[in-house]
Amino acid sequence: MDGGFLNYRKNNKFNPYKFYKHCYTEKLDLNVRERKEGLSKLDFGDSYLMIEDNGVLSTSEKNRSQNPMVIRIEVDYFEETVKELEQRKVKVEVHTFNWGIIGVIIDPEGNRIEKKY
To answer: What is the CATH number of the domain that holds 86?
Structure first.
């Protein structure tokens, strides 16, 4: 499962630059705030998302013991957001709960990202 993302290996090693550029800037529409050796910062509301270059690539979603963190982004227009992501070839799995609706995305490292309405 790659969620519609590309393979981010270079010489059998994880290539973080290709990963964040394709996954977070092109697919999830986050702008690069800063890039320097070893890390990248992407605009994330009034803050930033920092991606360090020492991540471990996974072919499936990491379980909670491997990564207990979820990036959850609240959206006002859920259906439109899901359609836009799917047009960008991002796999979105929608779940409905009594407290809201989430669209689950798994990034190329196996990290869980959720869009919530």
So the answer is: 3.10.180.10
